[in-house]
Amino acid sequence: MIRRRRYSRIGLVLGGGAARGWAHIGAIRALHDAGIKPDVICGTSIGALVGAVYANGDLDWLEEWVSRLTWQTVVRLLDLRLSGGLLGGRKVIQLFADKFNGRSIAQLNMPFAAVATELDSGRESWLQDGSVVDAVRASIAIPGIFTPVWHNGVWLVDGGLSNPVPVSVARGMRADCVIAVDLNNDILNGRDFGGAVVDTPAIDPTAPPPLALRRNGKPWPKWLAPADARTTDDVRVPPAPSARVPSMLSSIAQSIDIMQVRITRSRLAGEPADILIQPRLGGMGIFDFHRAAPAIEEGRAAVEYMLPAIRARLGID
After folding, report:
1. Beta strands in the chain (DSSP E)
2. DSSP string of 77-137, one letter each residue
């Protein structure tokens, strides 16, 4: 029989990282398989979305849905606009609104909090009551990509600007043991982290990008085309540098990656988790929502790798 001996309230923290967040599904599955179920859950950005779905009891639905996503499906979910951000987010959030069915955070199966950032002041905002959909929508509002959300008299944007892996929020929810999942550990092409850089085949900058067509047979705009520098489907292997001029979306994505890594490292240094899980996702871009299967598997593998330490920390037989 599995017994908790040391801690009475376990908090699960799901960090931000856009498409890399599908790894959270695998991490949660692996924790459950080991008999570890959190008492409270909080998240930033995609971590808030996955956390809310999990707290609502719909993780099976989410895994099935993301596993069917293709790149073309993802693009069709985007509602382009030029006011406040490239994407309105209406189509995407509506899918989840239908599952939450108007529920408030208080009606979820466990205590939950989403983190957003006040656009004017830069302060982080802990969303622990009110509409689940509104909280998630604010937390995922990546600046320049998704439009900000007006909430209680302030504009809210992505929580990753202030607290990408919100350990402090779990502590504030009275968790005496915090398990955190950081998606941003190795995403800057292996640089500046003291480890070896994975060698990948060189890219020919003169080679044409792969053909990507819309349903009408016309090509997608270059800024929406999938990354063409990737030489492997392994989400653990960062893509090799390319001499080709980055697209607008690639430049935004890489800039967000840099920001996320720096802020994450700073916050975790001052607010460490009791158990830190870091899936290897350096080969997965923030818009690679269609690559759910390998991300989920890497999330599971990262937890399984840490299980001896997790069991020892929790005092589990």
Report:
1. 10-14, 40-44, 85-87, 112-118, 124-127, 144-146, 149-151, 154-158, 177-181, 275-277
2. T--B-SSSEEE--HHHHHHHHHHHTT-BGGGSSS-EEEEEEETTT--EEEE-SSBHHHHHH
Q: Computed from CA positions of residues 37, 41, 46, 50, in that sequence, does the dihedral angle turn out positive or negative?
A: positive
Distance of alpha carbon 266 from the chain centroid: 18
**The overall pTM is greater than 0.70:** yes
> Cβ–Cβ contacts within 10 Å for residue 130, how many?
13
Catalytic residues: 45, 158
Q: Taking the CA atoms of 205, 211, 213 and 217 in sequence, report the sign of the dihedral they define.
A: positive
pLDDT tens, N- to C-terminus, the chain (317 residues): 445 457 789 999 999 998 999 999 999 999 999 999 999 999 999 999 999 999 999 999 999 999 998 877 777 776 555 444 455 456 777 888 888 989 999 999 999 999 999 999 999 999 999 999 999 999 999 887 788 899 989 999 999 999 999 999 999 999 999 999 999 888 775 443 333 333 333 334 344 444 344 445 555 455 455 444 444 567 876 666 666 666 666 777 777 778 888 899 999 999 999 999 999 998 888 888 889 999 999 999 999 999 999 999 998 86
The residue behind tokens 């998704």 is: 146
